[in-house]
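Lecture notes, structural biology module. Today: joint structure prediction for complexes of two components.
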Amino acid sequence: MNPEDLRYADSHEWVRIDADVGTIGITDHAQKQLGEIVYLELPEVGHMYDAGDEFGTVESVKAVSELFTPISGEVVEVNKGAIGEPGIINDDPFGDGWLIKLKVSTDVEIGKLMSADAYAEYVREEEQEK
Amino acid sequence: MAAPAAAPTVLRRTPLYELHRELGAKLIDFGGWEMPVQYAGILEEHRAVRERVGLFDVSHMGEFDVTGPDALACLQFLTPNDVAKLADGRIHYSAFLTERGTFVDDLLVYRKSADRYLLVVNAGNTPKDFAWAAEHARGDVKIVDASSDTALIAVQGPKAEALLARAASPDPSDLPYYGFRDTAVCGAATLVSRTGYTGEDGFEIYCRPEDAPRLFRTLLDEGRADGAVPCGLGARDTLRLEAKMALYGNDIDDTVTALEADLGWIVKLGKGDFIGRDALAAQKQAGVPRRLVGFEMVDRGIARHGYPARTAAGPGLVTSGTHSPTLGKPIGLALLPAAAAAVDTTFHVDIRGRDAAARVVATPFYKRSD
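The predicted structure, tokenised, for the full assembly:
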């Protein structure tokens, strides 16, 4: 299930806002699509991103996928634990498998993201198109 | 995250398609076939084959029957390995080569008797191979494409022998590596060979398409006690790469010669004429310009198929690359200039715009202990 307190991007990342810090990860649906994740590349702290920028890559045995940030801001923390053991993204995509934290520069972008229900509907539609 | 590409047009299916769906397989387009890439997960399936036993549907592979009084002479001309050295019931690895000594395909040759052979070729190449063989065949020989009348189940792993010993009669346990015989598996007529594409001990069972679902299901049930699981093409790829077995379309194709592919051992220049012989003899004389080598990463990252390589002796190319489940680190194969192909040579790979150092290592990456 997609947690109600998160916001979701159509590129299958989630964002949790806590004061002026946004935590970003990939959804449970995304990790299932990828399969077992064996490699993760994340930026250094201090990197600046605009919404929609690629901030890293996640790789399963078979596939490489780019990661996109749904919001703008400066990287204030990266999940070193997930780099060392990327399987935690599969095990706990909404918790210990988070990827980066950004210092959020605007509230406008977060309002454009989907709610848990809207994202669930979006995934259903995407599946039907296949 | 970028969305994976959408599924394409009409795909061919093996007799085990319905069973794959029932077993929860994730299906993909593999060379025009709708095949299971994984069931429970690639890492778990890989581990099952290394430690226990795994079952693979490889019915998409192509099979040609080659028969007639000139079958031996014809195969000697069509393939580089020495077919005259094969005894009845024995198999060797070989290829169809172009006049340039590059690959039309790689294949297995089974000798049933002096005038009856079975060739097993790659799925996606079957029509091309059949046309090529028909065009180049000489003498009194008949080549029949039996692919659609043949299903193929691979049983791979250290527990494969025990499983087949219970399920097959006569018991194929005494078969040598690359030997085969007719036997009954779960009561169905089959040909069983001690072959595989995983680097483990194992067997491949050729059967009629109508028998395949029952055989696969029975072997899976019978093997549960040994920890048998169904395995997809994802694990097949990581298993074969750890064993440094070449994959047509990745590591070898019609631009790579048999000598460059480090497969000189299937090229018997002294056996008489065969297609590609002159080019390979000349290349051997002049020196092989590049080599297919194994590598590990020095820097972080997974170097994958098609990524450019840069060496002190000129450019190269990554032909296969993955995360090795057994070793727990990235490995791969690359075609590198011969002067940069020695073990321990450092080179660089362009990983989607990022420069990453890699190092040539001895292969295979994994070798079973017994």
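Point to remember: Residues 122 and 128 of chain A are 10 Å apart (CA to CA).
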